[in-house]
């Protein structure tokens, strides 16, 4: 998938925004489309291009990462959960891209060079990891954002260089600042979704509650199980069942429903989901990050069925914690759970209010605005700092509270009031020895004696300086900052 749109070219050319996604499921590309839509609302954006990095790679790479993932979900979900937990450790992966990924990334690198973006937004961790390596090599001169697409932060999204990291909720921001990442680079924006219809939700309080049953991206037997359970509900209701492009499922649902039962409406693929979400009273389906965010923005609570182990289970945990969802762990209790919600006075209204509190309908606009109006210099985490964070996490120690040589420190650009680097205290000694001026100022500069500078220091200087010859920075110790409390 690649598409380019002209926006509002100004006298200076305007911003050129490249959005990189990956078609593993539909959520990442849906988030990319939402960000593209948000760019259209800014007069300073001249051109936008959206690129699915899997579509630009080889068919083998695409099948392994795309189709292979869903095969594992269906056949060995325990393995998916194991892999999710294993890769959740922050900075578990610290080295360069593996040769296979690097080879498949070449078309994406070519696309970046051709488009010459001033800003790059990643809605999948694969292009985010590629961009970090390009920033450290000095091969990208653009503001870069990493935009997560699930409510729980997962360690694969954490890269060594970026301008802004956008998370779904505040708990993720607290988690990452405890690791040592600076609050000025981590934003709890919500998950980008398409612009929602204006005005209040279109629910008719006099009509029976409307259930919206979604088969999800791949459909499945669970959708039939949901419909079968609704046939035995004691509470009055109507139901709209969205089967997507799964015609076999649509026929099976229609066969299951008694002819002439006007409580049910069965749909295939539809582009009217935003309107359906606003008319429905209760959603039954999987808690994907994008679908859950769309429900929350519409004030639509969820009955969660068949979540994918890992991210969808954690999405569900958060929604249940907020009071905006319930989960069915077996197909035999779905009807009982729905009846419990519809039959208890005030319960559905309370869940709808909780969903509205969780909803972040303006997340896409916030992502674009915070990135384009944010710091021009990237933020870099050195490999030594990454290893420190990983080791501390393995020992269940808060990295920002470490002391001595293992302590983490930040370098801050005082002119822009932005953090530009996170490193170990031991690395700071080397920088101060080489770059401290007569007045005691730490002045980072291009070093002609490249061979005498450690490779990690070379990457740091190259990324942080950009086109400048030097940069005065301030050193801040994390332990002192945390003890001082919020400013």
UniProtKB/TrEMBL annotation:
One of its GO terms (molecular function) is hexosyltransferase activity. Gene3D superfamilies: Glycogen Phosphorylase B. Residues 241-357 form the Glycosyl transferase family domain. One of its GO terms (cellular component) is membrane. It holds the Pfam family Glycos_transf_1. One of its GO terms (biological process) is glycolipid biosynthetic process. InterPro entries: Diacylglyc_glucosyltr_N, Glyco_trans_1, Glycosyltransf_28_UgtP. This is Processive 1,2-diacylglycerol beta-glucosyltransferase.
